[in-house]
Amino acid sequence: MNQSSNQDWTLLHAQLHQTLLQRKLLPENQRILIAVSGGQDSLCLTRLLLDLQSKWDWYLAVAHCDHKWRSDSEANANYVKKLATNWQLPSYIETANQVYKSEAEARKWRYQTLSKIALESNFQYIVTGHTASDRAETLLYNLIRGSGTDGLQALTWQRPLTDNFSPLLIRPLLEITRTQTGKFCQEQEIEIWEDSTNQDLRYARNRIRLELFPILRQFNPQAELALAQTAEILSAEVEYFEHETENLLERVTEVDTDNLNTSQFESQPVRYIINRLVLREVPLALQRRAMRHILHKVLPTNPNFSHIEKLTALINAPNRSQTDPFPGGAIAKVQHPWIILI
Fold it and tell me: What is the DSSP code (8-state) at residue 224?
């Protein structure tokens, strides 16, 4: 590895430095834990943060989670540890005590592990190498599955990993593409660890990256950045709508229960009372969001589009209208001016 070339100030250094200044993602004098897989994105991030360290006075360390999915996973972990030593960074290497069957289970274990390390060693921030390319893939993946705007804006710049809002998960590379991180590693002569599962077309995200994106680039060579920018726009809009929905829900649930005729529901406890006169005053987008929030509290599974539409339809339905059962057996009935969820 050419150590002298690592000190060159590149456009990527300048871009990340500017992003951190504008978005206030990683303040000065903080303890930062970098999640490193050994791939190009996480190694690019680690090198960039290390080169910026003198400007921000951070304390940096590396964490690697071995899922034991591949035969070379132990060698992968050893490589990350060796690289951290070469770059004079403390490292935390954790190995799963079981082989997780799904990406979701593995991700949950990984974030739990990173959070545990951060809390035990007093790291205020955990950073990951998610890029604009990952953000674009997530948008497409969720769009194909029928997600609403919340799913399309996934992979935000930061989010809390635990309920007490510490540590924060930060994704500083969301304006940088995978092509850029690969070029950076090549120019800086950083040897990356190739993950063989990244070529496995059994995984939907790999098919999006390897098969769908080449087609999309025929329509727009900057398709990944365009999609990532769309996710950024949606992120701000979702934040606004969530704020408005919380305010609306406070008004919706402020009903005069003393005057509510609950005798007809004595055999079934009332789970939720919704003031539909208030809901009639707001746009359909907010009606749907409010109903999704309410159903999320009542149903045993995440509400889908048809569940939300079924409950939303009662806002303007005739008195004594009712739905068929939702998952778990809940039924919504109209007792004007309320919708009773029992």
Answer: H
Mean pLDDT by 10 residues, the chain (342 residues): 56 96 96 96 98 96 91 91 96 90 85 94 96 95 88 88 80 96 96 86 90 96 94 94 95 62 57 91 96 92 93 96 93 93 88
Q: For residues 104, 110, 116 and 119, what is the CA-based torsion angle, rounded to 10 degrees? A: -100
Strand-pair category, 125-127 with 168-170:
parallel
Give counts: helices (H), strands (E), the chain: 13, 9
Which tokens go with 272? Answer: 């939720």
What is the rounded CA–CA span in Å between residue 173 and residue 177? 8
Distances (CA, A) of 271 to 115, 260, 339: 35, 14, 11
Residues counted in the chain: 342
Concatenated DSSP letters of 140-173: HHHHHTT--HHHHT-S-SEEESSTT--SEEE-TB
Place of tokens 């040897």: 191
Q: What is the pLDDT of residues 301-335, one digit of tens each?
A: 989 999 999 999 999 999 999 999 999 999 999 99
Please give the Cα distance from 79 to 324 (Å, whole number): 57
34 neighbors 60 (Cβ within 8 angstroms): yes
Q: What is the pTM of this model?
A: 0.85
Beta bridge partners, 159, equal 169
CA dihedral of 323, 151, 279, 258, whole degrees rounded to 10: 70
First to last CA, the chain: 66
Sign of CA dihedral 61, 39, 9, 26: negative
3-state SS assignment for residue 126: strand
Note whether 42 and 34 are within 8 A (CB): yes
pLDDT at 4: 38
Q: What are phi and psi of 132, to 5 degrees?
A: -60, -30
> Who contacts 38 (Cβ-Cβ below 8 Å, separation ≥6)?
64, 76, 79, 80, 83, 192, 193, 195
pLDDT in tens, 223-271: 999 999 999 999 999 999 999 999 999 999 854 455 455 555 555 666 7
